[in-house]
């Protein structure tokens, strides 16, 4: 399924590189790995800190025969693929935080950033960026604006090359079958790993704030909040535990 694997010592952002590399009709999977990113991108315009040899910076480009609607829930399915890759190395306490963070012991271990390219109506290309902390030095900690976990601390000794291979091994079949299966095939797995299930949470979406009890995700990957007995679906925003 993988047509090309490109390795960089340093790059601005593996997502940015792949977006510019992927051309119309270039066929599907291309992957980029970099030891370091000088301008790693996070969700919502944030930076992603990725110093030299301090984790995994991986982007996978894939072309879908179908409009952007067939990507519904994909970023959550990617979270499941990452959890499965970590499970191959028996990494303990892996959970998912909606929409697509991978947490370990209450802190963020990995993040996913999807970026789209193409006309998005009947064909679209997606770049899936995965950043995972492993071997981050404390000197970097001050630059990260949220509690973070590090794979080396949770489960030392996992070779990064093997982890990168496991990520690709889990992710590529998900992409290959996604237009056919959709998020429905991953929903149960996602719900079993849900960090916030049954917890009182606050959802910040734009300049609005919603409060409710996290009640899993829909077949389309929307967050379900139980708000005084009414189940409401949300398609965007950031959740946090109530009071934090
Ligand atoms: C998030 O904010 O949680 C998403 C972080 C995604 C970071 C990865 S690292 C590889 C790829 N290249 C980027 O510039 N960003 C993604």
TrEMBL record:
Catalysed reaction equations from the record: biotin + L-lysyl-[protein] + ATP = N(6)-biotinyl-L-lysyl-[protein] + AMP + diphosphate + H(+)
Entry binding sites for biotin: 13-15, 37, 41-43, 108
UniProt KW Repressor keyword: yes
Domain BPL/LPL catalytic: 1-179
This protein's UniProt keywords: ATP-binding, Biotin, DNA-binding, Ligase, Nucleotide-binding, Repressor, Transcription, Transcription regulation
EC id: 6.3.4.15
Protein's UniProt keywords contain Isomerase: no
One Gene Ontology term of the molecular function aspect: biotin--[biotin carboxyl-carrier protein] ligase activity
Family: Belongs to the biotin--protein ligase family.
Annotated function: Acts both as a biotin--[acetyl-CoA-carboxylase] ligase and a biotin-operon repressor. In the presence of ATP, BirA activates biotin to form the BirA-biotinyl-5'-adenylate (BirA-bio-5'-AMP or holoBirA) complex. HoloBirA can either transfer the biotinyl moiety to the biotin carboxyl carrier protein (BCCP) subunit of acetyl-CoA carboxylase, or bind to the biotin operator site and inhibit transcription of the operon.
Entry protein name: Bifunctional ligase/repressor BirA
Species in which this protein is naturally found: Microbulbifer echini
């Amino acid at each position: 399924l993988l047509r090309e694997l490109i390795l960089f010592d340093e790059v601005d952002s593996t997502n940015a590189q792949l977006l510019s590399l992927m051309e119309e009709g270039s066929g599907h999977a291309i992957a980029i790995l970099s030891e370091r990113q000088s301008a790693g991108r996070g969700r919502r315009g944030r930076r992603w800190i990725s110093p030299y040899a301090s984790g995994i910076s991986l982007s996978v480009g894939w072309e879908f025969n179908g409009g952007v609607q067939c990507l519904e829930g994909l970023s959550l399915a990617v979270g499941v693929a990452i959890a499965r890759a970590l499970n191959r190395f028996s990494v303990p306490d892996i959970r998912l935080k909606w929409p697509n963070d991978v947490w370990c012991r209450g802190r963020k271990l990995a993040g996913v950033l999807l970026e789209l390219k193409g006309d998005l109506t009947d064909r679209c290309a997606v770049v899936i960026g995965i950043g995972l902390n492993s071997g981050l030095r404390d000197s970097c900690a001050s630059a990260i604006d949220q509690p973070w976990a590090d794979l080396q601390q949770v489960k030392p000794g996992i070779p990064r090359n093997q982890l990168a291979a496991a990520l690709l091994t889990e992710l590529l079949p998900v992409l290959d079958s996604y237009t056919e299966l959709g998020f429905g095939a991953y929903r149960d797995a996602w719900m079993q790993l849900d960090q916030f299930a049954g917890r009182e949470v606050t959802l910040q979406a734009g300049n609005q704030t919603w409060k409710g009890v996290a009640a899993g995700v829909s077949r389309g990957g929307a967050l379900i909040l139980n708000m005084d007995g009414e189940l409401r679906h949300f398609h965007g925003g950031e959740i946090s535990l109530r009071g934090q």
